[in-house]
Specification:
By secondary structure, the protein is mainly alpha-helical. It is built from nine helices and no strands.
């Protein structure tokens, strides 16, 4: 296995992390504003296209070093295994917590927005931009900062510790309301961490994240 540390060769600075966190916190603002203000379809279309273009630019700039060299078949295998793993963990958590299961504030806000208007702008943010930014932030940039703390630790161990600690932040960023909602996001992030760690591919974790969010959108479409 190649050390992930060969990937962590960028200059990871706190100011960069702050900017990424701000993008995560406020990236959905245009979409939410369009829903709350009842903007016209033309404006919503412009916002949707804007999200798609911004995501493309983000990939071209920040994912250019992270090429996926696994091939189409192996990529599909990883996505299927990863998706089933997330689904299985979600099901098990639901079985364990039963009636005590609840959703996070983040999930509740999304469902409320989509109930008001199943906006293509918000969907574009959830499926395209959010996964791209979150994966780069929590599976690359933040671990790159954290791993500097463990300089004397074995390379592989340092990488996995950094990724797990960053995953805790990832779960907390989704504003869990209790242990169940925290574990839902932590388990999602954990599978993404394993994809990132075992395949050495940031793009694959981003693709899987997008696939999971797309599935959630489809489920919400029929549920709301």
């Amino acid at each position: 296995m190649k050390y992930l540390s060969k990937r962590f060769i960028g200059k990871y600075r706190i100011i960069g992390l702050i900017l990424l966190i701000l993008l995560i916190l406020f990236g959905s603002t245009p979409a939410i504003t369009s829903i709350m203000m009842g903007m016209s379809r033309d404006i919503v279309f412009i916002i949707t296209v804007g999200y798609a273009l911004f995501t493309l630019i983000f990939y071209l700039i920040f994912y250019r070093r992270h090429q996926n060299k696994m091939g189409v078949l192996n990529t599909l295998k990883v996505l299927v295994v990863g998706f089933v793993s997330i689904l299985t963990l979600s099901y098990l958590l639901g079985m364990i917590f039963g009636s005590n299961a609840s959703i996070s504030q983040n999930q509740e806000a999304i469902e409320n927005m989509l109930a008001l208007n199943f906006s293509p702008a918000l969907i574009a943010y959830m499926v395209l931009l959010a996964p791209a930014v979150e994966e780069y932030t929590f599976r690359e940039y933040l671990p790159g900062i954290i791993r500097k703390i463990f300089k004397k630790t074995d390379q592989n161990l340092r990488d996995i510790i950094s990724l797990i600690l960053a995953n805790i932040v990832f779960a907390l960023m989704h504003i869990p309301t209790d242990l169940y909602s925290f574990l839902v996001y932590f388990s999602l992030g954990f599978v993404l961490v394993m994809v990132r760690y075992l395949t050495n591919s940031l793009r694959l974790s981003a693709y899987l994240h997008s696939l999971w969010n797309l599935t959630s959108v489809v489920i919400l479409y029929f549920a709301l």
